[in-house]
Specification:
By secondary structure, this protein is mostly helical. About 85% of the residues lie in helices and about 0% in strands. The chain contains nine helices and no strands. It has helices at about 1-40, 45-55, 60-75, 80-90, 95-110, 110-125, 130-140, 145-160, 165-180. α4 packs antiparallel against α5 (about 95-110), α5 runs parallel beside α7 (about 130-140) and α6 (about 110-125) runs antiparallel to α7 (about 130-140). The protein is elongated.
Length: about 180
């Protein structure tokens, strides 16, 4: 009888501890998901508050740092965004999207070489990521590397042939090159 009571009590204890762990995991997910909803609504400060809560619950949660970085980027706070992306990369260096996001922040600051390095890494991690090729093409165009930029746009189009946002900058760049060669 004593053994049965002990087993029941231990089972209850495990359930309580597990429920607590599950609750914390749910809370992290709730804060992260609500932050993402606020981000979609362009309520970036509210999103940042929720990501802060998620990070307090789990300081090693790379996704929350990445998402908070996106919110900071959308507020034009690029240095804070880069700091969060750096942290997310330390925690999850295999995530191509974080490198792309950090590259975008570098691009916004006019740091095109740093942006290209991040897009290069994203492509190494995910060679089928059209967004990485497209963004790298934009950065290369800003540096005057027109032929290389066109190659990146072409690769992005091969990967996402229905994405009209890629065709437009490629077409403008080809037109610019044609005009420039006639001059």
């Amino acid at each position: 009888m004593k053994r049965i009571i002990t087993t029941v009590l231990l089972s209850i204890l495990v359930a309580v501890v597990s429920a607590g762990a599950d609750q914390q995991t749910r809370d992290i997910g709730i804060y992260t998901n609500r932050g993402a909803a606020y981000k979609k609504l362009r309520k970036y400060l509210r999103a940042i508050e929720d990501y802060n809560h998620a990070i307090r619950l789990d300081p090693d949660y790379a996704r929350a740092y990445n998402y908070r970085g996106i919110a900071y980027k959308n507020l034009g706070r690029y240095q804070l965004a880069i700091k969060d992306y750096d942290h997310a990369i330390r925690l999850a260096p295999e995530k191509a999207d974080v490198y792309i996001n950090r590259g975008v922040a570098f691009k916004k600051l006019g740091q095109f070489q740093s942006a290209i390095k991040d897009y290069d890494q994203a492509i190494r991690l995910d060679p089928h990521n059209a967004r990485a090729y497209h963004n790298r093409g934009v950065a290369k165009k800003k540096l005057g590397q027109f032929q290389s930029a066109i190659k990146d746009y072409d690769q992005a189009i091969r990967l996402e042939p229905h994405n009209q946002d890629i065709y437009q900058p490629r077409g403008r760049l080809q037109k610019f090159k044609a005009i420039r060669s006639c001059a």
